[in-house]
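Complex record, three chains
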Amino acid sequence: MSKDIYVIAEQRDGVLAKVGKELIGEATKLAADLGEKVVAVVLGSEIKDEAAKLYAYGADEVVVIDNPVLKSYTTEPYAKALTELIAKCEPNIVLFGATSIGRDLAPRVAGRVHTGLTADCTGLAIDEETKLLLMTRPAFGGNIMATIVCKEYRPQMATVRPGVMKALEKDASKTGEVKVLDVALSAADMNVEILDEVKETKKSVDITEAKVLVSGGRGIGSAKGFDMLRECAAELGGEVASSRSCVDAGWIESDRQVGQTGKTVRPELYIACGISGAIQHVAGMENSEFVVSINKNDTAAIFSVSDLGVVGDVNVIIPKLTEALKKYNAEKNN
Amino acid sequence: MVGFELTKTQQLCRELFHNFAENEIRPIARDMDEKEEYPRELLDKLQKAHMFGIPYPQELGGAGADVLTYTLAMEELSKVDASTGITLSVHTSLCCPCIYENGTDEQKERFLRPLISGEKIGAFSLTEPNAGTDASGVQTTADKDGDYYILNGSKMFTTNAGIADTFVVFALTDKSKGPKGMSAFIVDRTMEGVSVGTNIPRMGIRAASNCEVAFTNVKVPADRLLGKEGGGYKIAMTALGGGRIGIGAQAVGIAQGAINEAIKYVKERKQFGKNISKFQNTQFKLAEMQTKVDAARLMVWRAAVEKDKHGNYAPLAAMCKLFASETANEVTRGCVQLFGGYGYSREYPVERAMRDAKITEIYEGTSEAMKMIISGTMKL
Amino acid sequence: MKIVVCIKQVPDTTEVKLDPKTNTLIRDGVPSIINPDDKAGIEAALTLKEQLGGTVTVVCMGPPQADVALREALAMGCDDAILMSDRAFGGSDTYATAHVIAAGLKTLDYDLIITGRQAIDGDTAQVGPQIAEQLGIPQVSYAAEIKTAEDGAVVVKRQFEDRYQLLKVKTPCLVTALSELAQPRYMTVSGIVNAYNKEVKVLTFEDVKNNLNPDFIGLKGSPTNVKQSFTKQVKGAGTVINVSADEAVKTIMDKLIEKHII
């Protein structure tokens, strides 16, 4: 009988990735609805101590598969290990982060075990009647959302988009023993040879690829005003963009221009600062997921395409927002 | 009666031309116009996609498609940039046909093959300072001297001259015979005595190369005479007769491109509380313009199909050029008007379309010359 | 080298718009294209062929309309094209799709199979790895570069979020391509003319039934199915607030947290 929710918590270089904690947080909610347990699984080499931390994030049990062959990720040893785990433990649900590892590993395992897999979920829930896992995910380039179910095959598997679910607050009082699952693995299980592994620093971003844009218009007042926007963008992990008038005024480079004669962008967050909202600009950003705009003029056209419109002075609000973000980020990282 | 649908091959070709124009040309078209320069990289990309020999057989290194497919290329490219249209057109349907229809096998192998592959670019030198619509006013001479013809004279408004390797030049081998004394020659840009001027500053199609070319005692080997002595006028007129189909397609492209831009704009622009696309004036103007462009396109297609059938295409070609060019001028003016003030700005593409449209009523035979040809078939 | 490229014909989802009145997708007039990741795969295959010699065969599972995607691949320079098409294949989820395609691939000789990483309509990135599993061959996904080694093995630059690996894999193997892998070449006009003079081989259920299990394909054979689909909200005016700067900042922060943007 399939039971319990297994979260495959990724690690890189011996450090647990954030997404695993997010999935455990979500899994605790699902487990409560099902009356089942959350089991965190970590694969790696000499990983027991790191894995133990997951009790503090809400795991009921932590299982580790520890082998030198699992030190760096390659598909086959990981797939073999998980397949054995699934055969031995018979989970009801298995969750992975939808990372470049998860999206390589999960389909291979689902194929081997012959079960259903749903990709890149942004929402998980338990159906009241059927107790099935409801997996909601974007499709069609993000234009529609679909809810998927896996009725007959087990385990029900999903990869989940990082940054969407919430990790629980760390509770250092929660501890436990890490179980080691014995899986026979050796170098013979590698069907690829790692010639090299190279870490990369972040490359410069094209505004059409940025997830967050902090954009300035006439209301910014001067080139210096963009320094203020850059600080804010940095706290949000985003980029600075601009309306045409600032480019014409020489306050910012033209490749930052959003609009009819500039670039078209679709970020997750677009903050329009001191931008009036003329159609020439709006045409370039109206498909942004979430638009916040700040403008002194309460009749500014930008407010009619904003999810949150703030009437106020950009030069006062943005620095305060940056402060608040700095505080928030510092707390999150502790 | 034939259907009006394109074959699957033609449809896929049109998709290629459309994607190429959008991805490779649209981002740089305005810059090309402002700099009055045709980028070498773009010529290379056109060549790689085999766009310089569309209607020519694969045995000669061409694409093995038909004239109709060539007009699809002309339209799609000209929607985005009319300069690319004319560059391709002069090469494909003025220069190459002279050699294709009149050259010996040896001449085709030597001169036509590299043109069809796009390795070399072609130009067509007929017009002179004193010879426009009255082509019989040509004064460039070609005097026979042993195994050579010595070329002397100057040509005006030669499109592609600045980027071309191969010129088909029309000169008098016998001054006493008027047009019947004209002959056609294949001349290399690198021959001594050939001097290509700078780009002539023009109202439109500014990125296309268009220059004076002077010939001073150019020694042209006799094996580069196309056809017979005295056959040049007919060669030129025949080439122009077919070239008009390309110009008709170019005009259709210019007009349709302008309409497409206008449709996008009027759906975004708000005045008096609503999108101007909702005003009947806007809707009616666009309906009128689209109807005329649709008609022009069908006329171009019919002329192309007739040429592919080796039928009597010349009057059809003249009609399609006459109608399409006048339509392009009317439509581009109308589109600039729909844009209002922004239409006058060089940052929006419609003013360029309007400037580009004018030449289609003039070159490769003026509208007046077209009327002469058409009325000539009407037994008046 | 014998290379097989698996492609999918998809609607150009960047062109899809929402009808604000009915809140449904407007699919009319949306052009069908070769999935971008797959097209990069074709380019990578053609480049390898130019370097090493060999053949490139392109395979597509889809309805009869997918023929034009295969013609496009031929016009780019591929040697052969195969369309796997049958009502029995319809409604397949990624497991079932992989099962069908694997059945078709079993009729071919190959050294390297290239698929795109993910399709822009399904967005799952699952079919490539699942095909590799069903064929029992090694997989490398997220390929940013594909080269070959002297001994005929394939060397792949495998991209992660924060690093890359250089992996050496023996053939036969499967690689999933990122669109950054290669800038796809244009078709040529002669390529298009010749593509329509070639035959696109069609494989139906009958042609591959001995290579698959009929219970594992189609809607019935799919472990997952769609319970419900819905469109997201259309952008319109939201809330406008006119409060002190500190309150405004608090409201913004709350919204950003609520929307999981931070």
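Note: Residues 1 and 54 of chain C are 4 Å apart (CA to CA).
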